[in-house]
Amino acid sequence: MKRILILWIVLGAAYVTIEVLWRGHTHPSMFVVGGLCGVLVGLINQIPRFYRAPVVVQSLIGAAIVLIVEFLSGCVLNLWLGLGVWDYSGQFGNILGQVCAGYAVLWVFLMPFAIWAEDTGRWLIHAWDKLLRRSTGPPPQYPPYTIRRVYADFFTGK
Known about the structure:
- The chain is mostly helical.
- The chain has one domain (2-156).
- The protein is built from six helices and no strands.
């Protein structure tokens, strides 16, 4: 549970950072929403059925997860609570102004980064745990792939 909380915090911070770089601002609730998205996307390749799935398949599933979480959180934050965190009403293919087609496509292309970040975060937490316990076994294997490799696999269908 502690590992999940650490991943949630780190990935939530990454989500907020990306949003500030993209939009120029964010809302504190996006830390929670982003962390949840990161943890859920990370669970994709923890399920044996999807562990060896092509990156593009994992990216499509991950984008769907993010869109569902954003739609549900948008309905609560924007429509129910009236916080006005975002509004895609003027965008093509929007659903209640909470998600839209353009950002759905963008999320597909951001998913390889999210998958890599979550896997690398898991590896770092595992390595840190082994270091703190002064484990006598071999050190954990370096993360199995680079961000460059995951995007190469995404575009080649591996």
